[in-house]
Structure formats: structure tokens, C-alpha cells
Amino acid sequence: MGLLLLANGAARAQNIAPGYVVTVGLDSLRGGIILHDNTTQQRAVDFIPMRGNQRLHLDATQLKAYGYIHQQDTARYVSLPMNLGTAGHQTELIFLRQLVAGPVEMYRYHYSRDYYAARPATASSPVLTASLPRISNVAHPLLATPQQSAVSASNRNAFPPLNRASAQSGSGVSLLLNRRAQPGLLEVTSWAYPADAAAYFAGCPALADDLRAKRYRARDLQAVVRRYNVCASPAKP
């Protein structure tokens, strides 16, 4: 039934893509993913199992990951903890789109460009002030290592900018890195390029030298991460 659903015209009209989900028990289930906008995809996934026609609404507390193939797009989303309130606020699990896997992982976070215009300043909504870190390679408090994972009702539909630069640019997208050996997301869209990148990837001297020589631009970060991962991965016998 699930395969027929994915093949028929009704499925195409609903924007359903073939995909999979990975449960917290690390079981992989195939079926259809109902595609939504970028921020909705961060909050939860609508999944139709291959063996059935029920529509399951699953959030990041119920899955480790999910993915799909749509036209030329192959996407993988991973459940990760983030603090979407002020420092010390409860963390929650959300889905972030993974752009690169390996010793250093790269993720894309979509935020609400009008977040501060739409929300008054409250104790539970972060405010961009001069007290926020100005050093571009320091993780913002919103990305602090979490002590617990919980969904905050006040932030259930809120995806704020992660720093001053993001709020001012209004691009709606931030890039995040996670060093697998030292878990903790780092917002890098506002890096002072290429100095911050060269410092972060210093473990691969040839790459760091190329960064300092400006052989890569900020827009090449994905290629930089991939090159670093090749350098950092032990050679296979």
C-alpha cells in the first residue's frame, strides 16, 4: 500500500518523497516523507510507513534521524539538542539538516527572520544585547551544551537567530559545526573568515595554510569541511 501511495498522483500532489526514519532504538523504517517548509521540517516529520497508509507525526524526541530523496535533493535530518531560549533555559531536541558527516559534522539551521519583530522581549525570549559574545568563533549561549532535553511549550514554534550577525543579516539560515570528538554545536556563519576557519581546522596544516592564503571563500565551507574530514580520518590499510 505504501509503495502505491508514493507512486500515484495523489502522493505527488501532497509532495511526498520516498524516505526513511531511524527510531531511538536505531531501527530504520522506510516509507514516505511528507515535505513541508524548512522550519516545519526542523520541528517534526510526517511519515507514512511502507507497510501501511497511516500518517505518523514524529518529533525529534521519537527519532534519531530521517531522510528523503526528492528530485535532485537528498536530505538527512538528525535529532540534536539545542537551547532556543536564554542561556540556562531548558534544551529541546529538534531536527537539523546535516550537510556533511564525518569527524566534523556540518548542519544547517533555519531561523525565523522576523523573530524579534514578532515577539516582545520576555524572560523566555532571548534579546540581542551588547552582552552577547563578540568573538565570532565562540559558541553562542543558545548553543550551550545541554543538561537535559525537553520541549519548551513557549518555544515550540520559535526558531530565533543564534547571534547578532544572523539577526542583522536576516538571511534566515545559520551554519553549524559539530566536532564529533567534542560534541557541542558551534555557529560559524559569523566567522571572521578565513582566520577563524584556519584556527578551527588547524589539525590539518595543509588545509589551514590554504585557508590563510585565501584559497577558499566563506561560501566554500562545505568543501573545506569535507577536505578536513579526509585529512582527519585514519588511512585504511
Describe this structure in words.
The chain is α+β, with helices and mostly antiparallel strands and 237 residues long. 22% of the residues lie in helices and 30% in strands. It has eight helices and ten strands. The longest helix is centred in the last third of the chain and has 12 residues.
Topology as H/E string?
A: HHEEHEEEEEEHHEEHHH
Helix coverage percent of residues?
Answer: 10-25%
User: How does the major sheet shape up?
Assistant: 10 strands, antiparallel
Lateral strand order in the biggest sheet: 4-3-2-1-5-6-7-8-9-10
By secondary-structure content and strand pairing, the structural class works out as: alpha+beta
Number of strand segments: 10
Note the topology.
Elements: H1 2-7, H2 9-13, E1 16-23, E2 28-34, H3 38-43, E3 44-49, E4 56-59, E5 63-70, E6 73-82, E7 92-100, E8 104-110, H4 115-118, H5 164-169, E9 173-179, E10 182-187, H6 195-200, H7 205-212, H8 221-232
Antiparallel strand pairs: 1-2, 1-5, 2-3, 3-4, 5-6, 6-7, 7-8, 8-9, 9-10
Notable features of this structure?
237 residues, alpha+beta, 10-stranded antiparallel β-sheet, 8 helices, 22% helix, 30% strand, globular, disordered N terminus
